[in-house]
Design brief:
Length: about 100
């Protein structure tokens, strides 16, 4: 009887799976670090884009002669004596906190 040698043995298959597991274990920290760095950069860009958008809107409103400040507290009646807020004035600029 002839012996067939066309396939893989179970030992060879387990060795290959073990090697792949070791490689994945070595690559996982590097991939995780790269993803964290990419997410941090993306978040920083979103924050910068938000700041640029607020600054542009502020500039456009000032060019049109409109107010570029937001009232800090409820002053709907216009008679409020309470003018204290975080910045120390009744109105805070949109870009004071960036």
């Amino acid at each position: 009887m002839k012996k067939l040698t066309n396939g893989f043995t179970l030992v060879e298959l387990l060795v290959v799976i073990g090697i792949l597991g070791i490689l994945m274990g070595a690559l996982f920290p590097a991939i995780s670090s790269a993803m964290l760095s990419a997410n941090t950069t993306a978040m920083a860009m979103r924050g910068r884009n938000l700041f640029v958008g607020i600054t542009q809107a502020n500039t456009e409103r000032e060019a049109q002669g409109l107010s570029s400040v937001w009232p800090h507290k409820n002053t709907t009646d216009g008679l409020s004596d309470d003018t204290e807020d975080i910045a120390g004035t009744a109105y805070s600029s949109a870009t004071d906190y960036f």
